[in-house]
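Example 367.
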Amino acid sequence: MTDNVYEKRRQRLYRLLEEHGVAAVLVTSTAGVYYFTGVWLNPGERASAVILQPGHDPVWVVPEMFRHEAAASDVEKRYWNDGGNPYRLMAEVVAKGGALAVDGDWSTRHLLALAAEVGADTLPRSADGVLGALRAVKDEAEIRALEQASQWADQVVARIREFLTPVRTERQAAEELARLWREVGSPEMSFPPIVAAGSRGAAPHHEPDDSQLGRDTTVIVDTGGFYRHYCSDITRTFVLGRATAEMEQVYRVVLAAQQAGIAAAKPGVTLGEVDRAVRQVIQDAGYGPYFTHRTGHGVGLDIHELPYVMADNPQRLEVGMVMSIEPGVYLPNRFGVRIEDLVVIEAGGARSLNRAPKQWEEVVIEV
Ligand code: ZN
Ligand code: ZN
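Predicted structure in complex with zinc ion:
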């Protein structure tokens, strides 16, 4: 990515800030700083903030010890040393009199110290709404990164399928996922993987344990990695051995619901309408009470970010939004099914970033 990308993002932000009547934003999260500068920096307990103000050049107040990393960005830097007062530096950069906003990722300790410097008449407000709205619409470079991360997810899913046997444990499968992610090129995973077999699959966020996967039941595998800090997130439900008629029926309902969601997701449609399209299929099949979570979430530098595909969300889909569509049915003490893909909203509708097979015949593993 060229620096031009970051400048374009800052210009988009300035327009939004003017609409919202905000004079200055302090961006402090690692992902937020990366989004606007191209530098991935975790400053630990030390204060770091990129200050963005319409009509002013951006300024990054950053610890001196990170001078080398920060130098990769063309944004003007103000360095501070241990024992110095970074909050005073920040207060000096912020233009007097306007509304100041800070992202919600900053620790309260930093926020209170900044508030003491800027004075009570400029108490900061939350920048999360405006930053979230900006980052919800991806630019081309971001979509390319999310596509690559999703292709890796497809490869990992294809290979974990070969690993699953009745005697292997959930924990072994989770460790194999970590290994597969390293092998495709992602040293870290974007979240701890979920492997949930049998009745444990009825808990949507089950943590893998030492139980064997067993036979004649479903196995939910939910996993993701990173490409250039962009997350992937995919779920496939496999069947080890012979499925009951109800397992097959539930699987087909969840798949039809997911496909209804992808078909409904178009520019101008509300996120609530997408959720309703998905939920309707599951309700019509009689499993409504067992679909216990929202339909999906935005994915980007964070694994869960705006926009949220959930009931009554009035926000409208826009070209460039990327989100998961991930309905599930969880039958207590019996089994669970969830199917998840990432989609990008284009002018003609939603395009799936994942291609891992998900037809019923393709997820049954003979044992
Ligand atoms: Zn997931
Ligand atoms: Zn997800």
